[in-house]
Amino acid sequence: MKTFEKKWTSLMKKLSLTLISLVIIILFSFSFSYSDEKNITKGKAIVVDGDTVKINGKKIRFGGIDAPESYYRGKKQTCIEDNKKVFCGQISKDKLIEKIGTNFVNCKIEKNKDIYKRLVGECFIKEESLSVFMVRNGYAFDWPYYSKRKFANDQEYAKMNKLGIWNMNFEYPWIWRKKVREKK
Predict the structure, then answer these.
(1) Largest CB tally within 10 Å, which of 3, 91, 165, 182?
(2) Judging by DSSP bridges, how do beta strands 58-62 and 128-129 pair with one another?
(3) What was the pLDDT predicted at 28?
(4) Are 94 and 74 in contact, with CB atoms under 8 Å apart?
(5) Between 2.40.70.10, 3.40.50.920, 2.40.50.90, 3.30.460.10, what CATH number should domain 40-183 receive?
C-alpha cells in the first residue's frame, strides 16, 4: 500500500507542477497578446490629412512623417507646379484616400501622444505601411526630428524620381506651419 501511495503522491506532484506550468504559460501569452491588442487600432479609416486618419473616432497621426497641410489654422498649403499654385496638402490627402479606398486599416500605436493629444502610430493595409507609401510616392516627407531617418531611403527614391510633391516647388510642412504660426 505504501508503494501505491508514494506513486500516487509522486504522480499528483508531477500533475500539479504540469498544471501550474500550463496556467503560467497561458497567463503570460494572454498578457502579451492583450498588451499587443491594446496597442492596435483597426477599422475603416476616415482620412483627415495626408498623414492623419480617424478610426473608430480616434485620430491617429502617422509617426515620423509629415505631409503638406490640407487645412491648418484656416490656411491650405500650396506648392507651385508648372508656374501655378496648387493645393498640395489636398493632393496629399487625396492620394491617401485613393490608397486606402475601402480597405481596413491597422495601426500600431506608439506609447506617447503628440502635442495635439492625437495617437501616434504607423498604419498598414495588410502588411504595407501607409507611411512608406506616402513618402516613397512623394506625398509626404521623412521628418527626421521624429523619424530618426526611418523613411529617408523612401524619400530619396521619391526625390530622385521627382514623384509627387518632389515635382513641385514646395516648403516642408513643418517650415510652412511655423510661418503660419508666426504671422498670427
Answers:
(1) 165
(2) unpaired
(3) 44
(4) no
(5) 2.40.50.90
